[in-house]
Design goal:
The chain has about 190 residues and is α/β, with parallel strands linked by helices. It folds into two domains: about 100 residues, Response regulator (Rossmann fold); about 60 residues, Winged helix-like DNA-binding domain superfamily/Winged helix DNA-binding domain (Arc Repressor Mutant, subunit A), CATH 1.10.10. The chain contains seven helices and five strands. Helix 5 crosses helix 6 and helix 5 packs across helix 7. It is elongated and about 75 Å long.
């Protein structure tokens, strides 16, 4: 199994150094380091790590939560936030930004490794669910288009529903195009002829 690649982001270079050392001892690969949130976003876009471990409060225009939101919006990598602050407002912002996990400083290797593994597992579960949702939406969209196209064929050629469906299905097989494309073509043709 390929070792997990992690980007480390903290404005304190000593904390970054300690964290990189700890990650190496735990068997992870440090894919890159950054000292501010903006650099973290650029780093993650370029190296595509499996995980980003990031401090919340850093100097600069954006903080770790803002960077996490950008990474979540682009589906680049899950973010494990590190902070010395347990402020509920920060936690709420982190949740809204799509942060997968949150770990309070100081932490030990015994706390970090499970947090990393849980973050990765939750992110993978989320990605799987998001893909299944997208697939279901596509299936529903296809079904709606096919239903409309069947209605057009039924009206134009006095077919029953099963015959109209078979025509769409046969056209799909003959042209090697998805039924959705055939249905869209039927609907466009009907609009042009109307």
């Amino acid at each position: 199994m390929t070792p997990t690649r992690i980007a480390v982001v903290d404005d304190d270079s000593l904390i970054r150094l300690d964290l990189c050392d700890l990650l190496g001892r735990l068997g992870y690969i440090v894919a890159g380091e950054a000292g501010d949130a903006q650099s973290a976003v650029h780093l993650a876009r370029s190296v595509r790590p499996d995980l980003v471990i990031m401090d919340i409060r850093m100097a600069g225009e954006m903080d770790g939560i803002d960077a996490a939101a950008a990474l979540a919006a682009e589906a680049i990598a899950p973010v494990l936030l590190l902070t010395a602050f347990s402020d509920i407002a920060l936690v709420q912002r982190a949740v809204e930004a799509g942060v997968v996990a949150y770990l309070l400083k100081p932490f030990s290797a015994d706390e970090l490794q499970p947090a990393i593994e849980v973050t990765l597992a939750r992110y993978q579960a989320y990605r799987t669910l998001a893909q299944e949702t997208a697939d279901l939406r596509d299936q529903l969209s296809t079904r709606k288009l096919v239903e409309k196209a069947k209605g057009v064929l039924m009206a134009q050629y006095q077919l029953n529903e099963a015959e109209a469906f078979r025509r769409i299905q046969k056209a799909s097989m003959n042209t090697r195009k998805p039924m959705k494309e055939i249905a869209e073509a039927i609907l466009v043709s009907e609009q042009i002829s109307a």
